[in-house]
Amino acid sequence: MNHSTTKVGSETSEPLRYISKAEAEAIESELLKEYRFGPQQLIEIWGHACAIAITKAYPLSSMGRKQPTVLVVCGPDQNGCIGLVCARHLRMFEYEPTIYYPKRSSNGLHQDFTVQCEKMDIPFLSYLPTEVQLINDAYHLVIDAILGLEADPANVKEPYAGMLVTLKQVKIPIVSVDVPSGWDVDEASTEGINPEVLISLTAPKKCAASFTGKHFLGGRYLPYDIQKKYDLNLPEYPGTDCLIEL
Amino acid sequence: MNHSTTKVGSETSEPLRYISKAEAEAIESELLKEYRFGPQQLIEIWGHACAIAITKAYPLSSMGRKQPTVLVVCGPDQNGCIGLVCARHLRMFEYEPTIYYPKRSSNGLHQDFTVQCEKMDIPFLSYLPTEVQLINDAYHLVIDAILGLEADPANVKEPYAGMLVTLKQVKIPIVSVDVPSGWDVDEASTEGINPEVLISLTAPKKCAASFTGKHFLGGRYLPYDIQKKYDLNLPEYPGTDCLIEL
Fold first, then answer.
1. Residue B126 has what pLDDT?
2. A106-117: string of b/e by CB count within 10 Å (b at 16+)?
3. Which pLDDT does position B188 carry in this prediction?
4. Within 10 A of B199 (CB to CB), how many other CB atoms are there?
5. Which of residues 195-224 of A touch B (CB under 8 A)?
6. What domain of life (chains A, B) (predicted)?
7. Nearest C-alpha of chain A: how many angstroms from B37?
């Protein structure tokens, strides 16, 4: 066995690297095509990591006597699907997620993840209140699983543009999945929503370099050779944890 | 929201139920058809739970200065596939798994899980040594992911019958996945291999009722309504753990 490639994190003192959109896409493509990971498998892993991060940032015990309500806002593509899986795991962790998923994907895999949530009696909202106070009062936090890596922040269409206007005004904490919605993947954002928590998946993106909130990385599954090929310099995950706070 | 169905484990003091093969198959069928879970998703969840159980039963620190070698023996069907996923996660937890997978499935999904292990440089043995001492010396433990729920213990074919003869003689601990190979799912076994650890998936099977070794249950993902429908009386999982020691 060749063990020279096995402990990338511990053998280097190089700093963690923040990757570009192109690199993130290349890694995902390599996972799918070379390593033959499946989208269903990866989305399950990512959504689970997001739910664990939320339990760390906002434990049930921190929510006092009120019901541990969480609004999970899901976009049309893969990021939204990660939100669905996150909601399902939050339900198993005894949170009370509610999903807002305005444009359902026609992709069969995404539909399967939707059915899993519906069958578990997780409520789906038919519209997002424009009266921000209603959101502040009804939920402890909002999960932003809207646009993610795929979207073009210069060309955010409806209903997402309007949703971002609403989310910029909410007073409850926002947790963003991988890339805060409306941010450019490759640049720090001064506009856009302002999450309190960011959950980077696989490796942090360039836009996260100046993020000052609570920052988690969920990427324990990533094969060592890919970590090395892209010089990710990932930190060592503690124990069997699927994520780490940076 | 209807919360009457949400905390099955905590609302009952009924004992954990050990389910039959027919019930286990009915639950799996319901997960796949009604809840639209995917096989890839379930196998990933199960294999991950197995790897976590192994880290709890045999932590790296318990293996002294020797390399933390684990022999993962994989059967031809779903149980073998769970073994492949378990091996992959063990690798990420810095164990050194070696896989013996004598009859590779022609199922594309199973092949994908195989490629993931190969690409991560996990070695595959081309044969199982019949000289038991070689196995005892080379590995700390053996993972039995051979026959599982699907197989008919009264009709174990080669190469598995021969492999079970070998595994009955090894002196290192055996960890069985879901159902110890060669056991009847519905009855306690007096013959067959004698695992030190059993990892039940979803719910424990009837054959596990008299098992006296270390017994883990990995089934945190199981929707509450299914738990209730089958009167499983599952214990409450601690924190966000995906498994519990019974």
1. 96
2. eeebbebbbebb
3. 78
4. 29
5. 220-221, 223-224
6. Eukaryota
7. 7
